[in-house]
């Protein structure tokens, strides 16, 4: 007996698994390692009408991907959940986005440019509009139509099961219209000492205000009572999307050899990426007992 897991079911199952661990150890669902996507987010400001996304097949065999525009909404813990349509107060960009090609087939090591274009209505209100460009991997032709193997399995006295898990990846595409701005603060920062099963960590909230999303890097630095400060953790590409006002998070801390958390304080920073200047957007401090 041959059993193929559908692409949609596989994606949903992966997202459900990630939902259990996202609040504590992960920030964004990673793309499949076999497919490299650059850049990992697209932002089209007022004067910009198009952008390019490069796909590279890093797998050892040929792979095909179907490309679609979908909408994902962000929960308070940072999970991105697909929605049939944006809830009230959330603005999708799909009606303004066009892209080509819609289907790509890449040999091992081969790359392909996907062109993304935007057509803004003349009456478009100021603000930020977002959708996601979804890359769904299609079943391999050999696996999907191997009749001989299926027939042999049926005739055999031993049932065989073949599971083909297909996982997709998506990146946000953001359209900004008119004047947009945002402010961010780090609130309710709490130091959580090491427990019986987990090491020390920080819990906090990223609070966003304004009509645009924020996107930056999180870093935690420990300043002991004496001696030099040391970095305990960092995560790149942490977003809070419009219209979400807050994202609740937990950052596990990694102690360098010989470092003991006793006294002093930990500084948590939310900064722009290095390529954008590294400006600190928000900072908060918590004392260590």
Describe the overall structure:
With 289 residues, the protein is mainly β. The protein folds into 2 domains: 7-177, Immunoglobulins (Immunoglobulin-like, Sandwich), CATH 2.60.40.10; 182-287, Immunoglobulins (Immunoglobulin-like, Sandwich), CATH 2.60.40.10. The chain contains 3 helices and 17 strands. The protein has helices spanning 7-25, 141-144, 147-155, and strands at 35-38, 42-44, 50-57, 63-74, 80-83, 97-100, 103-106, 111-118, 127-137, 169-177, 182-192, 201-210, 214-223, 230-240, 246-252, 265-271, 280-287. Strands 2, 4, 5, 7, 9 and 10 form a 6-stranded mixed sheet that branches. It has a 4-stranded antiparallel sheet with strand order 1-3-8-6, with no helix packed on it. Strands 14-13-16-17 form a 4-stranded antiparallel sheet, with no helix packed on it. The radius of gyration is 22 Å and the shape is globular. 22% of the residues are buried. Residues 1-31, 144-154 and 156-164 have low confidence and may be disordered.
Descriptive terms for the model:
289 residues; mainly beta; Immunoglobulin-like; 2 domains; six-stranded mixed β-sheet; four-stranded antiparallel β-sheet; 3 helices; 45% strand; globular
Main sheet properties: 6 strands, mixed
Instruction: Tell me the span between the first and last alpha carbons.
Output: 60 Å
Basic shape: globular
CATH class of the largest domain: Mainly Beta
Radius of gyration, Cα only, in angstroms? Answer: 22 Å
CATH fold field value of the largest domain: Immunoglobulin-like
